[in-house]
Amino acid sequence: MPRIPIFRLGQAPAQPDPPRLASYKPSLSLEGLQVGVDNLRQDVYLSPRFVDTARSQIAHLIARHGEVEGLLAAEGAIIVPQQKRFASSPAAALRKPQELADLKPLLTELQLATLNRAKAQGNLAVDVLGRLALIKFLRLELSTQFAQVLERCRMMLRGFEGTRQQKALEYRERLAAFQVRKKIILRKTGQELFQKLREIEKETLARTRRSLFGQECNTDYRLFLNRLIFTEDGRDDYICAEHYVMFGNFDRDPDRFANMRNIACQFLRSLSIDGEAYDEGMLDGWLCMPENAEELVGGGRPDDSTPQGQAQKTRLEMWLTLLENENVMEQVIASYEVVPLLAEYAPRINAQQLKNALVSRAECDRVEKLIEQHGKLSSKSLYAAVGRVVSCRGGERANIAGRFLRDLMRYHRDLRRLETLNAAMDSVNLIANEKLRELSAVNGTLYDFLSGDEQKPSEAKILHHVVLKADIRDSSRLTRSLFERGLNAASYFTLNFYDPVNKLLPKYGADKVFLEGDAIILAILERENEPAQAVSRACVLAREIIEIVQGYNELLERAGLPGLELGIGIAYQNSAPLYLMDGAQRIMISEALNESDRLSSCNKRARKVMEPLNSPFRVYTFLTASNADADDSEEFTINYNVGGIRMNEAAFHKLKTEISLEPCQIEYPALWGSEKTRLHSGLVPLNSDIFRRIVVRETSSPEIDPRNFSLLTWTEKLYYEVCTDPTVYTQLEGEKAAKQGK
Q1: How many CA atoms lie less than 13 Å away from 266 in the CB half-sphere?
Q2: Burial code of 412-434, b = ≥16 C-beta within 10 A, e = fewer?
Q3: Residue 374 needs a FRET pair 20 to 30 A away by CA distance; which of 78, 237, 563, 612 works?
Q4: Cα–Cα distance between 113 and 437 in angstroms, integer?
Q5: Which helix (H) or strand (E) holds 218?
């Protein structure tokens, strides 16, 4: 018999939409920041005034929460009569502490300084770096100041040895209690500092940041407003109990955080949202959003009058059943019921022991005995809490299960934020050493965050630099010749070379980098917002050095003394130099140093060949026959530079951007009759009404047979000379005058 179809009247109930879960992964970016002197981390130097005040305040808070202020007052009574001259010691600073409110303005000022610097540099990562450095400093000082307060208390007790035994015994007991309560003291001090930071963020920093950078900000500043930032690893029973939920700590505890997280992941997998297979990263992202607890289970109180609420109720029952099956629901209830007991019984009784006493009869008996031994405590509150745990049934258990899911997610999120913050702080190098600070500063890698009155007018940023090396030719032969005549070589070089050159440096804004026995190395630094004329000034300075030495040579020749011969190299580098510190002395590190040395060098064989030619040009470069396959290696290059100035290619191209270079024609004898040369002439402004002309020779390098210096071919490799021979400039002026006459 065929089955009769059954028709239902009305529409089928609407299926609820699957839960839409949000995902969150905390992150901090320090992109765009320079690494410091260790090439790994960013160097940060904090305001000395803030550092001193913060140390004093943290020590004062530790002494107050540790209840040893009386001991330190006794320390003052003992120390001051014996050592009056140390009235400004750290101990004296703590005996008369500033009010805690004094730290808040300094914290505000320092963090505003980091924001303003970030705005000036157009990079919010600078502000993030400052905040990371501040928290890292405060964390370090918590442990450091606790150790210092402890040591001072011990030193004070030694002053009571042999006398005032009763007082010494009392202080010894207080000191022992101070050591035992270390974790509690550091927690209270850290939470007080956190409260100050949170107030400053809400009252000042958030609005200032929006004003400077707008509403849209990619940086997650919520990482700095995390209750766990001053905890050792995020696992503090008291903070968890007050602000999250107290998890188990012991290996035997079924409600350890790792286990509860696994149960939550198991619950999420069971939902089969969108029919997807979830990886660990997706589950972790969902657990970092406490709002997902509301979406999933309605916060433990779903509204079952709607399809969505009914679905939440179903999922809540699934979550509660899972907790029951894993035998952790009793511990979850106890985690909330133990909170009001902590104020009454802790720290005399361990917080975890109190929680376990609410679910274990054996543990409850042990806690009862501890309460009886204390004498002044009552077990009434404990019994009442045990009764509430036992009587928790039905809807109340579901409410607690829903609340627990949200608190678990809140703690999971903040723990991930703490891990992200810790990883970012590993990139911060707090500079406390003055030598390292100077080294980082001169290399342009220091981020210093100072209060207003500590900030000095900063030097403009160095963008580029030019190195000039003036090398004396055959200095050994010259020195030996002077000694043979019974003359002082040191005074000879000083009076005829070093002193005249030193007088030129202020005129051209040049710095002395290094002084050798037969050479001087100078640098011209090109800074931000200054005229970009480093290469042109170096060219004129080099010409003037050559002219001055030639003038002294005329005087020396009249006196029957040997003259000086120079070779000058000019190397430009399109970046700031680096420095290392040798005591108080800065030592420059730059590729331009090595290149200027090569440019100023002169080969003896080339000198023997070129000097008889009497060419008006003083710089030549030859490539040996083997150089074709040598990738322009310097060992296959023969340089000639006597009384000349050679610049590198980068310097020539930079010179063309600094001044106008015009091609010029001068008759001169070409090397081998076929030398490919171009001359460029330009005026260099030294002052509002002072100009110096320079002529630059651009020439191809010949490839030669090194055995006899015979020409093989002309190459495409160019070299550049700043002409120094007066006849070149005289002939150029004559050519110009002739053109004007026509």
Answers
A1: 14
A2: bbbbbbbebbbebbebbbbbeee
A3: 237
A4: 19
A5: none
**And the tokens for 254?**
């079924």
Domain positions in the chain are: 460-597, 601-741
Average pLDDT (494-509) is 90
Cis geometry, peptide bond prior to residue 347 (ω within 30 degrees of 0): yes
* Phi/psi of residue 402, nearest 5 degrees: -65, -40
Helices (H), 426-533: 434-442, 475-484, 489-493, 499-508
Please give the DSSP secondary-structure letter assigned to residue 256.
B
Q: Which residues, in sequence order, are CB contacts of 664 under 8 Å at separation 6+?
A: 679, 680, 681, 695, 732, 735
The residue ranges of DSSP E strands in 516-644, in sequence order, are: 519-527, 566-573, 578-582, 585-589, 619-624, 637-641
**Token match 């204390």: residue?**
374
Can you tell me the distance from the alpha carbon of 195 to that of 484, in angstroms, rounded to the nearest whole number?
81
State the amino acid at position 438 in one-letter form: E
Which residue in 226, 209, 1 sits closest to 115, CA to CA? Answer: 209
pLDDT over threshold 50, residue 436:
yes
pLDDT of 279 reads 82
CA distance 465 to 458: 19
Characterize the bridge pairing of strands 519-527 and 462-472: antiparallel
Nearest Cα to 577, choosing from 471, 467, 448, 658? Answer: 467
Distance (Å) of CA 191 to CA 78, 104, 150, 595 = 33, 14, 20, 58
Q: At what angle do helices 534-558 and 649-658 cross, to 10 degrees?
A: 110
CATH topology of domain 460-597: Alpha-Beta Plaits (3.30.70)
**Identity (one letter) of the amino acid at 404?**
F
What CA–CA distance (Å, rounded) separates 680 from 367? 96
| C-alpha to C-alpha distance for 677 and 190, rounded to whole angstroms | 74
Which region among 248-262, 311-325, 657-671 has the lowest average model confidence (pLDDT)? 657-671
- The yes-or-no verdict on residue 631 having pLDDT over 60 is no
Copy the structure tokens of residue 722.
Answer: 């700043």
Residue in the structure block whose two tokens are 């157009």: 122
In sequence order, the 6+-apart residues with CB closer than 8 A to the CB of 602 are 473, 567, 639, 640, 641, 642
CA 180 to each of CA 188, 347, 350, 465, 566: distance values in angstroms, whole numbers, following the listed order: 14, 10, 13, 60, 76
Looking at residue 5, its pLDDT comes to 43
324-348 CB burial, b ≥16 within 10 A, e <16: eebebbbbbbbbbbbbebbeebbee
pLDDT tens-digit map of 255-282? 999 999 999 999 999 887 655 667 888 9
Contact 43, 445 (CB under 8 A): yes
Contacts 24+ apart (CB under 8 A), 365-370: none
Contact at 8 Å (CB) between 520 and 498?
yes
The whole-number pLDDT of residue 719 equals 95
Structure-derived torsion over alpha carbons of residues 657, 660, 662, 667, reported in degrees to the nearest 10: -90
Q: Is residue 673's pLDDT more than 90?
A: no
Cβ atoms 681, 565 nearer than 8 A:
no
Beta bridge partners of 663: 680
Distance, in Å, from the CA atom of 39 to the CA atom of 44, rounded to the nearest integer, reads 13
How far apart (Å, rounded) are the C-alpha atoms in residues 293 and 307?
17
Q: Summarize pLDDT for 140-185 with one digit per residue, the tens.
A: 999 999 999 999 988 888 776 666 677 778 888 888 889 999 999 9
Using alpha carbons only, how large is the chain's radius of gyration in Å? 40
- 67 contacts 177 by C-beta, under 8 angstroms: yes
Mean pLDDT of 642-656: 95
First to last CA, the chain: 127
Closest Cα partner for 403 from 417, 387, 418, 392? 392
Comparing CA positions, the residue from 129, 131, 149, 122 lying closest to residue 55 is: 149
Report yes or no: 634 and 607 within 8 Å, Cβ to Cβ: no
Are the C-beta atoms of 636 and 511 separated by less than 8 Å?
Answer: no
Q: Is 486 left (phi over 0), alpha (psi -120 to 50) or beta?
A: left
